[in-house]
């Protein structure tokens, strides 16, 4: 998926707009979260807009979904639409159309690309300050109707003859509504635009009505829920907060026991699980059992901890498919909460121990499953868990009077060590440090980089820092993405 996002607001001669740059930045961030390869360009002159369009055209050669967004001044001239650059010559309509970005050109670039689904969104119908100079009639206000080629949907901030409002907050009225509804799970893009239209109408007291042209032949969703992306397990297993326990089922009795957070109930509950009983259990139930085994292990259950530490022996004699369902659940629990949403931080206690199982060829399908789930959830990691890739990290330490201080952590030649919002320092700005040995530092890196210990290759500069048990690490700093 590829997107080109423009936001032009710093127009000269008092014609500036306050929201478009924010509109472009906020939508660009949102699209990146949905897996788009995004180009964000703001306050561009005509040459810069043409240059970015050429870059985007190249990008579309390798993506099957393309999105174009423009926020700023837009106008129609002789029935065609133009997107105004900061240096567009407004002396006459002829000058203007030859120094703006033609919407027809944008449509043509996308139509001739390899993208099967093409989305164009225009928050570009603000009041045209040059109308009086050109002696325009009211019928030429706003943008002209546009033909949507096959596989294309074009969203306009306003209906013909109307103007868009620049908004009273951070975003324009239309873009604010788009940002509000784009996250709606399992919402078709056509339905999303209808919701946007309702919000725009309400926000403008009925003065602004967004509209669309569409010739989409397939379905497109910005935010598909995990249950719709993964069909191997039911929604109530993936979002096990919805899982309903029933009396009389052995699998449910095991799950109920593991959920108690009481070791004296968890341990005997897990003892009920054996190859014979597992062979009669549904894979969804085994998946939820796996999730709760990992949860119980993290909570201190000895039986569950043994199961996580010695999975191969704990599942000896199990049918291959049943064993897979349990391990799938354990892996899923590391990354996803009871609503099947990505955890802000992984459940780390047995992360490296469980990922040691990647060494076993017979378990490879479980690691393929978790890699697929994380990809579907648009998880952002330095390397994707489940793919078996190593990550090389270099820790830089400086000698100071109090000892060796970690001052940088490099991945791909980029220092990724940064302060969190609540970094520790004194009132005069002096940084606080905590003592940490090389072994504990690797554990910290493993958790924050989300790379199993076996796949994390740590080197130090200077090399002797890796032997020091008294490294000092800046408190409140992290290498998390």
List the helices and strands and how they pair.
Layout: E1 2-7, H1 20-33, E2 37-42, H2 46-59, E3 65-71, E4 74-77, E5 80-83, H3 93-97, E6 101-102, H4 103-111, E7 117-123, E8 152-156, H5 173-181, H6 189-203, E9 211-214, H7 226-229, H8 235-238, H9 250-258, H10 263-271, H11 275-278, H12 283-299, H13 302-309, H14 311-314, H15 320-335, H16 351-355, H17 364-376, E10 391-400, E11 403-411, E12 414-415, E13 418-419, E14 433-436, H18 438-449, E15 456-461, E16 471-474, E17 477-478
Parallel strand pairs: 1-2, 1-3, 3-7, 7-8, 10-15
Antiparallel strand pairs: 4-5, 5-6, 8-9, 10-11, 11-12, 13-17, 14-16
Helix pairs in contact: 5-6, 9-10, 9-12, 12-13, 12-15, 15-17
Percent of residues in helical segments?
A: 25-40%
Span between termini: 21 Å
Widest sheet, order of strands: 2-1-3-7-8-9
- What's the story with the biggest beta sheet? 6 strands, mixed
> What are the low-pLDDT stretches, counting only 5+ consecutive residues below 50?
135-139
Radius of gyration: 28 Å
